[in-house]
Fold these 2 entries.
Entry 1:
Amino acid sequence: MKTGSSFFQLLGQGSKTFLLLVYALFALFPLVWMVIMSLKPDNQMFSTTFIFSPTLENYDAVFLRSDYSRFFFNNLCVSVLAVVVSLVVGVPAAYALARFQFKLKEDIAFTILSFRFAPEILVILPLFLIYQKIGLYDTYLGLIWVYQLITLPLLIWILRGFFEDISPDIEAAAQLDGYSWWQVFLRLLLPLVRPGLVAAGLLCFIFAWNSFTFPLLLSASNAQTSTVVALRFLASDTVHYGQVAAAATISALPEVILALLIQKHLVRGLSFGAVKG
Amino acid sequence: MSKLVSLSEHPASPPKTELSKPAAKFAKRRAIRPYLILAPALLLTVGILIPFFSAIYLSFTDFTLRSSSYTLIGFDNYTSMFQNPDFWHSLTVTLEYAVICTTVEMLVGIGIALLLNEDNPLSRFLRIVLIFPLMIAPVIGTLIWKLMTNPSVGILAGPMRLIGLGDFKWGAAPDTAMFSLILVDAWVYTPFVIILVLAGLRSLPKSPYEAALIDGGSPWFVFRNLTLPMLAPVLLITLVFRLMLSLQEFSIIFALTEGGPGDTTMSLSLLAYNRGFPFYDVAEAIPIMLFLWAAVYLISFILIGFWRKAQARAAGVA
């Protein structure tokens, strides 16, 4: 009896591990293969699978001999600046939603959240016309502004949760000690929520960086970002598959690193604070 | 809690009846402060949504990008949308895409999360690396799958030939395009379900399980009667997020099939994009997106109602 049950336990454990490995292969192999492709020289692209002489010539071609680096830089600038703008206006807003009691509070909070789930095409259609009229089409400023729909709801909702976790007593004590509201906010609260601030900021950056529909339709040759241009690599006449893979790798790498930095806060971030990880 | 909040807001304010003039002014400033703090954030986002109202106005005109003059035509764009078979086809595609993607991702995600909810080196490693597909841009993910399924350099051509599917055309053939899209969507978003469900599993209280263990309940009985009800809030909120975003999915479909071949994968977002951009019929495109927007809101509103109930119930179980 005893040996029988341990045999079935072993079988159960084995099939669990097997299922996990199958899923891991499905999830991770495409990424591994992308890196392999990006290291393959053009002349070995069709004849080899895993054994080849690796080269950095694709990266060289993508980064130094094409204007991909300019679009990469565009994406970096637009995403970083969008996060900075969101931090400046969003951190105080998150604090206000966490601490003050006022009329329409929940309505305002949900309105801000709902911006994240407005269909992008619906926002873009009229914005396309207006941006062209007021000169924001194909500019950094235009993209930074529209990216607020992605970054601001995310930042406010994540940080609201972090502010709510801090006991109001701490603030009350500091205010009784004679510190002004601003001093309490800057010197006491911001350092306390710093882990949340970093996580929320980085997650906002990732989502801004990944944005595709907004830069596709609201920018052209000037402010276009690398996500849009990477897709165009594949559509060009003479396809250099290795370069496509290199462009994809360059675009994906920063995010993999950032994801590792914020994994502790990822659950809270991805669920807008609804699930506390 | 609310007592503490009011304490922090009025640390030393005297009772209301004794307010002196400057103190009254001070109290008034306090009352409007939250609105002032919120104003910039609201202005930035509402500012970008003002075009939204001009969009509603334009949807009642015959506006196109091809001509500079336009006139009000009432509900014509709406009635012609509902009479157009393209719209109904796209609605079917959208629902098919969203329902299948969400179902597959929820089922696989819950399954993998249950398997990962154990402390061993493999689980610890996978919990970290499995989020990579979720973090990279969906378009880049789609690009990788496009390369993998490419008939000349793609790695999948060989294995597919081995299992007798050598002429599998992935996104390029009408009967496999939807399957390919769902595969890519599941690759990108299943990790989302996994990590949310995992977080939910790890926050479950231990004591009901110990009680169930003593009572000798089967694993299925425990899952059905303990885990599932306590996990319901997390599952519902995950479902809301996945359903909302998959109903609107644009970038994966645009990058892989552009709604094709023909119009086999022409979802409502793609249909509106095609009307609005290559063909410039903005006024015809807007009603399509307004319809989708209203549908998404209605569905999520209902599901969030369930979520609130489930939260109350889960609190009762725990």
Entry 2:
Amino acid sequence: MKLSSTGQLALSALLRNRMRSVLTTLGIVIGVAAVLMMQSLGQGATAYVAEAISGLGTNVLMVVPGGTSRGMGGMTLGVPLFTQADVDALRLSARDVGHLAPVNTRPMRVVASAINRSTSVSGVAPEYFEIREWGVQAGRLLSKEDERDAAQVCLVGQTNADALFPGEQALGRELRVRQMSCRIIGVLEAKGASAFGTDQDDVVMMPYSTFSRRIIGTDRVAMFMVSAVASDRIDAAKEQIVATLRRRRHLPEGEDDDFGVRDPREMQALLTKVTGVLTTLLAGVAAISLLVGGIGIMNIMLVSVTERTREIGVRLAVGARARDILTQFLVEAIALSAVGGVGGVALGLLGAVGLTKGVNVPFVMPTFAIPVAFGVSVAVGVLFGVVPARKAARLNPLAALRFE
Amino acid sequence: MGSTTRSEPLLELKGAWKAYGEGEARVRALDGVDLQVRDGEFVAITGASGSGKSTAVSVLGCLELLSGGEYRIEGIEVQQLDPDVLAALRNERFGFVFQSYNLLSRTSALENVALPLVYAGVSQAERHQRAARALERVGLAGREQARPNQLSGGQQQRVAIARALVNDPAVLLADEPTGNLDSKMGAEVMQLISGLNHELGITVLMVTHDPTCAAWAERQVVFKDGRILRDERKAA
């Protein structure tokens, strides 16, 4: 018996039971679509994290007080902050450090003429904006003169510009931060959410000197942002920073650092690992629904074999070999699952576009996922079709003919 | 008579027995049957129900194997053959007609008739051509696309006969072919079967309990309790 005849036979058998075929296929459609959607969601989340972290800048280190074993940011209680002298020492002895900017950040309430709101206020050195590759959309950045003079000027992020001066220009207006009033000299470019979901545009930035002297009254440095002279010198810069700070902080040999040099690439690697695990987990759960779909096919094929026992008897009587019957039912099962695979890929693509848009991560569909999803659905057909098909092929012709 | 192939019986059972079931429930459906059928014969097999007549036809048609004894087709011992060879024998040498027609539902008359050709590896165009010719032979030209539920019982049985014919078999095996039909339709079907025997020279083996049907045959074999009670030829 020719394969093309087998295909026709299977197709006409499935069309004879249209409703049942559609419902059986639905199990596979949902399974395949779920796997694809979860794959896409996971990959999208990974891409989102990568993008958000690279938004920090491609050549950035963050130096923070507190041991590296204390996690990201974490507890800094009891650990000495950095001093202005540390800044000067790093500038002198860390040869591969390009730019270095001390940063102090506090949550504060700021007041425009009529509106006040809580935001994140930072004092930063002018180099900060070069390190983060961040510019203004209006006005200018902080200058060396602003820093030297502890000028009463500030920059606002997009979120503050919109919230504090709705429908108005923020540039040139006065903003009160605690007891100090400062003039807005620039509006920063919008940067969006960070890797941790905080709004990077909900900020006010002013010269480091202004912030420490006029607002918080201490010149202790909470953290540095550092860039290397070139992005391939970043590891060397890191080593030099560690060596200098250990010496300055009188750490004996063998004792752990009481500060950390954070490299966004490491964070990216960690977060990518986390999202990777998450993706596998989600896809695993989705795969279970594919398994259930496969069992649905097996169930329906077993029912079909029983229902069609007489038909099988007739076919055997007119000369079908056991293997012809086996092929016929196997092809039917595969046809069901393959059609389900095609439908699942279509639904999965649509669903993935919608889902990623819904949770606001980029749409990613790895190209290999589609043929793999289709292949798996066909494999499910073979796997769950074999048992019913063998049952059909093993029937005794006479018993099958007399089956009521 | 010389020992030419002509003299060799087409079908031959020797000391054939067939048992079903186990232990106490064991039944000997055939219990030492010797039967020879020559090419071109028209044989009616009669007997009470449970006498073994249907079992005999199933064995002769290679739907079942014997529990013991010998069955030869043209001198070839069937018991030793591979299941695939038995399938090929059913496909090429035998045509089956059943009491309950056994047509595939929701399938056209043409496709039903063409079914044996599918397993013979015949191309679709030729399948349809030969199936149409077989339908014409049984008087159903023009009803190719009708489905079984659109046909009368007599018509359905004629579709089944066309299916049995389509592969030009040597032997037609009919198990109560008129059992579900009224006497008028039954007579039509018997006319048709008799014609196949006389005009095409097809050997016919027909199980029946109806004496009027049996009267169409030229030889009558009567079964009782798994054995042959009588084997009579009509006086020519």
